[in-house]
Fold:
Amino acid sequence: MLFLAENKRVLLEKRYKAALVTGVGSGLGRAFSEMLLKEGIPVWGTSRNVNSLERFSGIKGVSLDLCRPDSIQDLLMFFDDRGVEIDLLINNAGFGVFGSYTSRSFEDWSRQVNGMLTGTMELTHGILKRMFLRKTGSIVTISSLAAEFPIPYMSGYNVVKAGLSAFTESLMIEVEDSEVTVVDFRPGDYVTGFNESMNVEGKAAARESIEKTVWSSLCRIMSKAPQPEKAAKDLRNTLLRGKSGMVRSGSFFQARAAPFLARFGTSSMKRCGMMKYFGIR
Ligand SMILES: NC(=O)c1ccc[n+]([C@@H]2O[C@H](COP(=O)([O-])OP(=O)(O)OC[C@H]3O[C@@H](n4cnc5c(N)ncnc54)[C@H](OP(=O)(O)O)[C@@H]3O)[C@@H](O)[C@H]2O)c1
Structure:
């Protein structure tokens, strides 16, 4: 058994010479990076405040703000100038915007879609082109179960995650006859700093409203969610399989039971279930 485990470790270390993980300062990104470092894979990790990464030993920090297109191109150039060949990209960075669609400014939604969806696509475009030239590499995009089960009052986020899943599924066909693999990794809830850094509309969260009920439910559900190390273990198993595909990760209910049950219901039944889950029915 020990021999097999050691063999698998060597397998990942041999397959990947350099990984790029976006948003490594906290939560899932941090757990993914620690797992990759343990596997012996050198990790480049991004933050909008690269100095904040100094406390994480082993990670080579680089600056990235997905909401600034020049920042994405600067990062690609940074790697080219140094001859760094990224053969594993984990598109992890992201943020939430909470509130009813019309109570928030349209700029809030478009910033989220431009940063998280268009920005992630732009970074992937640059890295995938280089992977095709070298005929090897893997791209894992962290979407969310929100792609299948839209979270109330997070319309922009749901659009981003469904878009990232559709994007990754499109790429799966395009990489089919190459050595490159792409994975749509869909986490359910995990205990991270996600809710604390969420852009919540002050007024909506404070007043007695459906939004307030949903926000309380989100915080309660998140506090009981699994730890990010579980997601890192699922990601490791996914990388070991070495194939393109979609992977759900999370609690048994969110990642297994709910998607299974949703297959047999209508969309209105699914919507009712979601509203009950968030306490608004
Ligand atoms: N936690 C969950 O329950 C859950 C469930 C499903 C999917 N996800 C997804 O998992 C990913 C990681 O989230 P998390 O839960 O680990 O949350 P988190 O702890 O808040 O981490 C998010 C990371 O994204 C980075 N980031 C935020 N805005 C950015 C921007 N404009 N440009 C570049 N980087 C940015 C942050 O880095 P800096 O602040 O250092 O720049 C941070 O390290 C996200 O894509 C999230 O949507 C999370």
